[in-house]
Amino acid sequence: MKICIVGGGNLGTAMAAEFASKNHAVNILTSKPEAWQKNIAADEIVRGRGLLKLKSKLTLMTADATEAFDSADYIFVTLPSNVQKDFAKRTAPLVSDKMKFVMVPGFGGAEFLMQPFLQRGAELFGFHRVPFIARLKEYGKSVWFEKKARLHLAKFSGGDIISACRDMEQLFSIPCEALNNYLCITLTPSNPVLHTSRLYSMLKDDDSAIEQNKFFYADWNDAASEVLFKLDDEVQAICHTLKQVNLHSVLSLKVYYESSTVSALTKKIRSIPSLSKISSPFKHTSQGLLPDYESRYFKCDFEFGLDIFLQFAEILKLNVPTMQNVMNWYRQRTKNFTRAINLAEYGIKSEQDIYKFYWT
Asked: Is the Cβ–Cβ distance between 154 and 188 less than 8 Å?
């Protein structure tokens, strides 16, 4: 297959290495093509087997979307939500009928942000979580990654979801399950509740400068788990209210993490090896380490994640005090009271509007 990957970060690099190692033609669309080399190296962590070293040759590294998109069977978009709208607006004139875009991951408002593509007849798919945990070793040159056990894919517009799943299995070498509706992606309780619960519990009482950063996951605590469980319950309440759509695949985090108590969840998250070295989103300043409110952990997961959940709850007239408190805290801290995505602007003002928008 001929593949285009938009974005050269952790995930995009790992996907490029995986696909190219199987002799697929891989184009990278990146703002820094000069920093890339054609031959990239990847270390895949395989449980029980150690490291599997991949050597992969890319076809093209470019900042020109016309070149990158040309004849691609699939275009994988790994950009964070806060830059997707601008990307879609800039490149929409290059999009033609039946071009296949896959959002990695698919939550965070992709079905709204990619509207310029959809208006031109593009097909849109999304993963409910990232397929890999990945971290760059050297930008444009090397990466390490660990695969998830299973993929879940949904379509928002057009296309054959079963055929797309088979293609994903070939590309990733991971079993892929087709989901019945894109709402299963939108309502996935992943980063929009995972990151926001940790940041809220960490900073709600004090966001002043610190001397030493904390690990985001390895230092996870019960306070974060308590907030996470409450947010997860409120997401499940949304799912249970939308009775006209089968949302059984939107698993509670109690099930996903196999943890029924706060302490068990804390232990589980702290013990995930692939997440152990990830630091919290702080930045160095003259006063010391301060929260980086421009980080995707803040801008994407609050504004394009949790706030979408909150809007669904408001439309459904559900009481979601934890969502409301966490979003209110974020808006007060950042002084940003404008919604990044306003569902009403997409015609979603009632429960029936939700079904109409997501009907496939």
From this structure: no
How far, in Å, CA of 221 to CA of 265, rounded?
9
What is the predicted pLDDT for the residue at 50?
78
Strands 2-6 and 25-29: parallel
- Rounded to whole angstroms, how far apart are CA atoms 250 and 305? 15
Q: Which regions of the chain are under pLDDT 70?
A: 360
E strand residue ranges, 243-355: 282-285, 288-291
pLDDT at 353: 97
Q: Give CA torsion, residues 310, 313, 317, 322, to 10 deg.
A: -60
pTM of the predicted model, to two decimals?
0.95
pLDDT at 303: 97
For 336, the 3-state DSSP assignment is: coil
Chain segment 327-343, per-residue pLDDT in tens = 999 999 999 999 999 99
Q: Where in the chain is the domain with CATH 3.40.50.720?
A: 2-181
| In contact, 244 and 360? CB cutoff 8 Å | no
Architecture of the CATH domain 187-358 = Orthogonal Bundle (1.10)
Identify the residue whose tokens are 């190692």: 21
pLDDT at 360: 59
Q: 3-state DSSP call for residue 51?
A: strand
Strand 60-62 to 25-29 pairing: parallel
| pLDDT at residue number 273 | 87
Q: What is the DSSP letter of 250?
A: S
> Which residues, 6 or more positions from 292, have their beta carbon under 8 angstroms from its beta carbon?
281, 282, 283, 298
Nearest to 69 by CA among 22, 101, 104, 112: 101
Which class is domain 2-181? alpha beta
Which residue type is seen at 173?
S
